[in-house]
User: What shape does this take?
Amino acid sequence: MTTDRFWHLLKTEFSYQSLPKRRFFVEKFHSWATLIYYTQLFNIILTESLIARKMPYEGKTWAKGSIGVLKIVESAGGKFYISGLKALSDHKGPVVYVANHMSLLDTLVLPCIMLSFGRVTFVVKEGLLKYPVLGTIIRAIHPIAVTRENPRQDLKTVLNKGLEILSNGCSIIIFPQATRNAIFDETTFNSLGVKLAQRANVPVVPVALKTDFQGNGRIIKDMGPVDPSKKLYIKFGEPMVVEGKGQVIHQKIIEFISKNLKAWGAQVHPNIP
Assistant: This one.
């Protein structure tokens, strides 16, 4: 599937669903699925890293690599269910995407979807920039890097750099969690994305993700086992304008993510006063 074909589907069907193919060996033997997945993933990350060294890594160039990861997931038995793109397709201009964060796949697959609606970059942990091979790609997309050690400084960095990026017409993806987790904890989901959207006077878009197809590893967090029985869900909410102090919108984002995760069978740790 080409980038143009994939983007055409997103813009006309406002969704994407993996074809219902049976892959006996990867569905029966999860260790085989894990081997296939990581063998192909390392190859594509290495290839994309070399490309990022030679030319600007943006637009269709970045999207092609991201679609490559989507295909790798499908070859290892994963099935995607992407929805909620109608309102996003109707919107013109940059937005702040606010999403929960389950696995490394979030960073690898989201670009091929969001780039179909305009330029985008991430708020990432500073340590990712130093990763061998993958770090080359991360640096090439010119993200906003935060330490996750000094909340006050991170807030200042995101607001200042984020405002500049958004004013230039580029959207931003934020994961307002301390760390990736298959369990969505409402109590640790901060309002950084809402604050940025309000300061830049752009809408905020909630994104619910269930990507625990790739688990988080015990020794190396980015390399957990693959489970083809777990479907991958990505759902976008409608763009919302932030008014007042933003608490109402922040709560709506949490409710959107929690509601969808529960419907997909994921665990949610509620914020009980």
Remarks:
- Strands lie at 16-17, 80-83, 96-99, 120-125, 144-146, 171-174, 184-185, 204-210, 232-236, 268-269.
- The mean pLDDT is 91.
- The first strand starts at residue 16 and ends at 17.
